[in-house]
Amino acid sequence: MLRRATGGLSFFNTFKMDHSKLGESGIKANLESYIQSFSKDAREIFEYFNFAEFIGQLNDADLLYKVVQKVRKFESKYIYLALNCPLVTWKTNRTMSAKAPSAYMHERMCVGEDEISRRLKSHLIIKNDLTSDNYETLLDSRASEMHAAILDICG
Length: 155
Description:
The protein has 10 helices and no strands. By secondary structure, the protein is mainly alpha-helical.
């Protein structure tokens, strides 16, 4: 599904180091190694934006450590958010049809309550707002959650 969503491109990373240790020592080398651990298609994006040069500039200005620490601070809280995903895709829309969100969610309960909660949390959707079947409340609530996350990250 990822390949289809990215136009057939493949994005993955084989980095072996625990992300929490990424900025402990040898930050520049570790970050460069992390970037080199991405698939070829993903590395092309880093290369397009001259990310290696930017890392060097941050390192030379003694800012790389601060940036990596800031990213690490938010990584555990926000790393698995799926904010770039639409709330409802065309496929989901076809599957849901005219069903209320609570009915659609009930059908998906086969994956278990914990998995449903994890998925909703990753999309910043409050379960009670989804099960209320009030689309306006749901969208307003998600927009509010997204806004709070953006403010927290960008501070």
